[in-house]
Amino acid sequence: MHLSDLWFIAIAVLWAGYFVLEGFDFGVGILLPFLSRGDDMSKRVMINTIGPVWDGNEVWLLTAGGATFAAFPAWYAAMFSAFYLPLLLILIALIIRGVAFEYRGKRDGEPWRRGWDVAIFLGSLVPALLWGVAFGNIVRGIPLNGAEHFTGNFWTFLNPYALLGGVTTLTLFTLHGALFLALKTTGELRKRANATASAVALAVIVAGAGFLAWTGASYRAPASYGGAAAGTRTASVVFAALAAVMLIGAALANRRGREGVAFAANAVGILAAVASLFTALYPRVLPSTTSPALSLTTANAAAAANTLAIMTVVACIFLPLVLAYQAWTYWVFRKRVSAPPAPNVGTPPAPLPPTATSGPRAAPGA
Amino acid sequence: MSVLELSRWQFGITTVYHFLFVPITIGLGFLVAGFETAWVRTRHERWLRLTKFYGKLFLINFALGVVTGIVQEFQFGMNWSAYSRQVGNIFGAPLAIEALLAFFLESTFLGLWIFGWERLSPRLHAACMWIAATGTLLSAYFILTANAWMQHPVGSVYNPKTGQDELTSFVKVLFNPAQLAGFPHVIAGCFLTAGSLVAGVALWQVLRPGIEEGHALAFRHALKAGAITAIIGAVAVIITGDTQGKLFTTQYQPMKMASAEALYHTAQPAPFSLLTIGSLNGQRAIFQITLPHLLSFLATGNWSAKVQGIDNLQQQYQAQFGPGSYIPMVPVVYWSFRLMIGFGLLAVLIAIVALWVTRRGRTPAHGRRGWWRKVLILGGILLPFLPLLGNSTGWIMTEMGRQPWLVYGQLKTADGVSANSAGEVLASLIVFTLLYGVLAVIEGGLMLKYIKAGLTDEPLPTYGQGGAGGAGGTDPGGGPDADGAAGGPVGAGPDEPMHLVY
After folding, report:
1. From B416, which residue of chain A is nearest by alpha-carbon distance?
2. What is the DSSP letter of A106?
3. Does residue B432 sit within a domain?
4. Within an 8 Å CB–CB cutoff, is residue B90 touching chain A?
5. Mind listing the pLDDT tens digit for each residue in A60-87?
6. B177-206 and B422-453 are packed helices; what angle lies between their axes, rounded to 10 degrees?
7. Rounded to the nearest 5°, which phi and psi values hold at B249?
8. What is the distance in angstroms between the Cα of A123 and the nearest Cα belonging to chain B?
9. SS3 labels along A317-347
C-alpha cells in the first residue's frame, strides 16, 4: 500500500471521528429549543452534557483539515476554494456556536440567553446540514477544469443527491444527539430524548438508505480504475449495509431503553456510513464532473513521500495519545447531568471563611 | 478591488483580530496555572479567588481565540489555494501537527479544567491548566514554524515537475534560524501582554475606592506577579527583537529592515531614523531626523558597518528576480515598526511604575485624590491595551515588510491567491468584518463586567478523587492545611451526578 492510500484512510478516519463526536454535539444543539420546551434549566442541562467535550470534538475537524493540507495539498487547495461559500456559512455557524456555549451563562437576562440559544441552534443546524451537502458533492464530483479550478457556482452544489446527503446528516446527527441526551440526562428530559430518537430514527433510516443506495448505484468510482478500487467498490456497499443494520439496531435498542447500546450502535452506523462514502470515492479524492481525466486522485493530489512519511510517524505516536486522553475525559464526565434539587437556595451552610457568603452553587456567572 | 486585494485585506483583518486573543491565551494560561498552583500549595484563599477571577477572563478571551482560529486554518485553502497547492508539503505538515499535538491538548484539558472542579483532585485540576497552557505554547511553535518558513524558506526545494515545494529536511524547517529568533520574540510578547493585563486590572482594582481589604491584598499579589511577568517579558522581547533585526538586516530580508528605517540609499555608516517624512507614495524621503552610526550598530553590532538601502536593493532584486517592484509599502513598515517599539516600551514603563508605587505594601496614591491618582488609574486602564497594539503592529510590520513576497524569494503574494470571484471574497470580507466587530463588542462588554465584578465569594471547590482511574494525587478536599479547608458539602464522589457549570 502506498503512503498516500494510508493517508486517504487516515483522513477518512478523522472525518468519521469528527462526525461521530461532533455529530452528537450538533444534535444536542439542534434539539435545544425542542426538548427543553422553553425551560431554561433543561437548556442548561442539555448544554452541560456536551460542555466539557464539544471543543475537543471540534478539533477532529481541524485535524482533518490540516491532514488534508499536508498529505494532499492539491485536494485541500481545490476543495476549500471550490466550497468557498458553503465553508463560509459553516465557519460563521461554528464561530457563533462556539462563542454561544461559553458566553450564554456569563450574563443574566432573558434576551441575552435567548440570543445565544438561537446561535446554538443555528450554529448546530447549518453545519449538520451543510457537511452532508458538501460530502454529497465531493462523492458526486464538481466541475473542475484542467487547472484544478472550480468552474461552477453556489447553485452547482444544490443538486438533489447532495441535498439528500444534507438531509441524511441533519437527521442522523439529530438522532445521535437525541440518543446522547437519553444516555446523559435524567427524568423528563431523558424520556423526551428517548421518544424524539424513536421518531427521528425513522427519518434517518429513510433518508440514509436512500442516500447510500443512490451512492452505490450512481457515484462509486468507475471499475476502470482497477486495482484496489475494485475492492473498495464492493466494500462501499458492504459498509452501507452495515450502516443500515446499525441504524436499525440503534432504533430498536432505543425503543427498549438500552441507551448505551443505542448510542454505540448509532456511532458505529456513522462510522460505517462515512466509510461507505470514502470507499465509493477511492481512488479519487475530488472527482471532476467536467471530465473523469481531470479528477483529483490519491496519486495525483498527494504530497511527496517524505512529507507523508514524517506525518505517518507523528500520527502513529500522537493519535493513540490523543485517543487515550480524550477517552479519559469522557470517563471523568461519564455521569448523567441533572438539574440541582429544586429549592437550591438553602444549600447546607458550608464551613466557609467569614467573608464568604454561601450562595446557590450554580450562581450566575459560575 | 481585485480578488488579490480583497483576499489580502481579509487575511490581514482576520489574522490581526485572531492575534488579539492568542497572546492573552498563551501568557494568561501560565499565570492562571501559577495562581492555582499557589492555591494548592499554600491554601491561601486569595490565590483561589485570583485563579477564578483571571480564569474567567482567560475563558472569555479563549472562546474568541478558538473560533477565529478555525478561520485561519480554512482560509489558506479558501483564499490562497495556489499558495496551498505549491507549499502544502512543507506548510501543511506543521499545521496538521499543530492540530494533533496542541489543539487537542488545549481543548480537552481546558474542558477538564472548566468542568472538573468537583471531579478532579486539586493537583490534577491545576495540572490540567498547566497542560492546556503547554498546549498553547506548542501550538505557537508549529504555526510560527510555518510562518518562519515563509519569511526564510529552508529545508525545501522547488520541484518544477510537480509545481510544488518539497521537503529536503524537516529538521531544518522545525529549527529554522528565523524561527529560533522569532518564536522567543513572539512568546516573550505574549508574556508581556498577559502580564500587562493582569497588572493593569489589578492596579485598577487596588485603586478602587472602598475595595475590601482582603481583595485589595489579593490584587496586590496579582499586580506584582503580572508586572514582574510583563517586565521580564519586555526585556526578552527587546533582546530577541534585536537578534531578529540583525538576522533579517544582514542576511534574510535586508529590504524589510531598510524599509523599517526608510533608508533609501545604502549608507556606511548608517544613521538611525528618529523621524522620516516621506513622499506620499513612500518612494523617497523628504525630511529626516537621524542619529548617526546608530543603525549600523543596531543592524550589525558594528558602529560603522554598511547597511543597504531600498533603492540599491531594488536594483539587485531586479537583476536577480526579473523586472518588478520589490519594495514594500515603506510608510506602513516604517511606522508599524516604530509603533510596535513605542507601545511595548510604554507598557513596560507603566508596569515598572505600578510595581514601584505598590512596593513594600504601599497603597498607591495613598491619601491623594488629585492628578497622580488619575494618572495611575489611566495607566491601569491603558496597560492591557498597549502590548496588544504592539503585537498587532509588529505582525503588520513583519508581514507587510515581506511584500511583494508570500514565500520570500520564491512565491509572490499575487501568485498565491485563489481563482475565486471578487464577489465571493467581498462577501466573506464583509461578513467576517461585521461578525468580528460585533463579537469584539460583546467580548469587551463581558471582560469589563467580570473585571468590575472583582473577586467572587462563591463556595470553595469540593474537588473529587482525581477522576477515579485517572493518575495523579488524590488529595481530597482541603488537605491538611486549615486556611482554606474543604468548603461546601463533601466532594462529589464519582457516583454523584454532574453539576451545571454553563
Report:
1. A77
2. G
3. yes
4. yes
5. 999 999 999 999 999 999 999 999 999 9
6. 40
7. -70, -50
8. 12
9. HHHHHHHHHHHHHHHHCCCCECCCCCCHHHC
Per-residue cell: A118:
438561537
- A125-140 pLDDT, tens per residue? 999 999 999 999 999 9
Judged by CB atoms closer than 8 Å, whether chains meet at B457 and A340 is answered as no
Sign, Cα dihedral of A41, A45, A51, A52: positive
* Mean pLDDT on A267-287: 95
Task: Give the per-residue pLDDT at B281.
Answer: 64
Our CA-based measurement puts residue A72 at a distance from the nearest CA of chain B, in whole angstroms, of: 8
The C-alpha cell that represents A200 in the structure block = 427521528
- Give CA–CA dist B234/B383, Å, rounded: 13
Chain B residues touching A326 at Cβ < 8 A: 104, 108
Percent of chain B clearing pLDDT 70 (strictly above): 91
pLDDT of A153 > 60? The answer is: yes
Residue carrying C-alpha cell 515603506: B330
| Cα(A130)–Cα(A118) distance, integer angstroms | 18
B-chain CB neighbours of A325 within 8 Å are 104-105, 108-109
Question: Distance between CA atoms of A98 and A125, rounded to whole angstroms?
Answer: 13
Span B118-131, average pLDDT? 94
Chain B residues touching residue A103 (CB < 8 angstroms): 60, 63, 442, 446
Question: Cβ of A350 and B502 within 8 Å?
Answer: no
Residue type, A122: L
**Residue range B143-158: mean pLDDT, rounded:** 94
Per-residue pLDDT tens digits for A221-269: 888 887 788 889 899 999 999 999 999 999 999 999 999 999 999 999 9
Report CB contact under 8 Å: B93, A56.
no
* Residue from A21, A103, A122 whose CB has the most chain B CBs within 10 Å, to mutate: A103
Find cell 509588529 and name the residue.
B394
Residue B262 has what DSSP assignment? T
Helix A259-281 / helix A160-184 crossing angle, nearest 10 deg: 150
Q: What is the DSSP letter of A216?
A: I
**What is the domain partition of chain A in residue ranges?**
3-338
Of B115, B214, B424, which is closest to A355 when you measure between CB atoms? B214
Asked if B67 contacts B74 with a C-beta cutoff of 8 angstroms, the reply is no
Q: How far apart are the first and last CA of chain A?
A: 52
Round to whole Å and give the CA distance between A311 and B55.
35
So what's the pLDDT on residue B305? Answer: 83
Question: Strand locations in B109-218, DSSP E?
Answer: 156-159, 164-167
Give the integer Cα–Cα distance in Å for B178 and B185.
11
Chain A residues whose beta carbon lies within 8 Å of the beta carbon of residue B460: 350, 352, 356
Q: In this structure, is residue B317 part of a structural domain?
A: no
Distance of residue B427 Cα from the nearest chain A Cα, in angstroms: 9
- Shortest Cα–Cα distance, A316 to chain B (Å): 11
Rounded Cα gap, residues B465 and B455, in angstroms: 27
- Within 8 A of B71 by CB-CB distance, chain A residues are 91, 95
Q: Which positions in chain B touch A39 (Cβ < 8 Å)?
A: none
User: Which architecture characterizes domain A3-338 according to CATH?
Assistant: Up-down Bundle (1.20)
Residues of A in contact with B112 (CB under 8 A): 52, 329, 332
For B261, residues 6+ apart whose C-beta sits below 8 A from its C-beta are B270, B272, B273, B295, B307, B334, B337
Candidate from A163-167, A192-196, B256-260, B459-463 with smallest mean pLDDT = B459-463
Burial class (CB in 10 A: 0-12, 13-18, 19+), B145: buried
Range of the domain at B78: 3-251+326-453
Q: Render pLDDT for B18-27 as a digit per residue (tens, 0 to 9).
A: 999 999 999 9
For residue B282, being part of any structural domain is answered with no
| Residue at B256 is within a domain | no
**Is A106 close to B90, i.e. CB distance below 8 A?**
no
User: What pTM does this model have?
Assistant: 0.91
CB-CB under 8 Å, A80 with B77: yes
